[in-house]
Design a protein that fits this description.
This protein is of the alpha/beta class. It has six helices and ten strands; from the N terminus they run βαββαβααββββββαα. The protein has one domain. Helix 2 links the parallel strand 3 and strand 4.
Length: 274
């Protein structure tokens, strides 16, 4: 009988790619450092998942075999450059829309933290938790680890970088005792499946045929903030995986990005000349 291997699983390699026209590499680098600390020091003890992050400067290519966390302006730019649902190798990818965050008055570093942690917890965007409320009825909850406490006001700082709070595995376990259980990193949630103000979670009622819906803490109608950007995790969860698209080869993406930045410069010059 061959010996049993006790080798530790390899750490996920994540390339953080900056293609935003608003953020320089100098803006992004300290956030990557803080995210590395969050994953290794805070997230791994709860979830048993670690990652090694590498900053990829603008105009350079990410190493083969890595997952991607891409910093973009908005979903329009993502489509223009050729970033779709998966990396060209078919590996997991998260997107951060920095310009959209700035327009909404929210922190792009919190969004980066949010997207990274959720990608590590459920890279294929297909995990759910089932709660049965009748013999033939029940609810599926999306296995998203930051949605319930995603508001910037519940985040915390690593150095000068604001990052997202996240739930612990116990948040998905209805049998946990409230008094003796930690449900989120910052101890702001008091019971399983509780949503903090500004939080939400994807739900699928298995008997009503309505597909994935967003449930909010406030129980009021959803707004555009809760609608997933094209290519976001929320949008992809509602799209059959056979319809997901791989991104263009990164060499082509780099060329598209150069052309995109030239176009932005031309538009800016025309504005200034008008």
């Amino acid at each position: 009988m061959p010996p049993v291997s006790h080798a530790q699983p390899s750490t996920t390699q994540v390339s953080v790619i900056n293609e935003s026209s608003l953020l320089t590499d100098a803006d992004v680098t300290p956030v990557v450092v803080a995210l590395q600390q969050q994953v290794t020091n805070d997230f791994r003890p709860f979830w048993g998942t670690d990652a090694e992050l590498k900053m990829i400067p603008q105009g350079t290519q990410a190493p083969a075999g890595t997952w991607w966390l891409v910093i973009l302006d908005d979903s329009d730019q993502a489509g223009a450059l050729g970033y779709h649902d998966l990396t060209p190798e078919g590996l997991p990818m998260g997107k951060v829309f920095a310009a959209s965050d700035l327009k909404a008055g929210t922190s792009w570093s919190v969004t980066a933290s949010h997207e990274l942690l959720e990608m590590l917890a459920d890279p294929n965007i297909n995990l759910t938790v089932f709660t049965q409320n009748a013999e033939t009825a029940g609810m599926l909850y999306a296995y998203e680890v930051c949605d319930a406490c995603e508001d910037d006001s519940f985040g915390y700082k690593i150095g000068n970088v604001l990052v997202s709070d996240f739930v612990c595995p116990a948040w998905f376990e209805s049998f946990r005792e409230q008094a003796s259980t930690q449900f989120d990193r910052m101890n702001q949630i008091q019971s399983p499946l509780q949503l903090l103000s500004g939080g939400y979670i994807g739900v699928f009622r298995i008997t009503d045929g309505s597909g994935w819906q967003q449930q909010t803490a406030e129980k009021h109608p959803l707004n555009l903030r809760h609608r997933g950007h094209v290519g976001s995790r929320r949008e992809r969860r509602s799209v059959p995986q056979e319809q997901w698209l791989t991104s263009l080869p990164q060499r082509k993406i780099v060329t598209n990005a150069q052309q995109y930045r030239k176009l932005l410069q031309t538009i800016q010059l025309r504005k200034e000349a008008a």
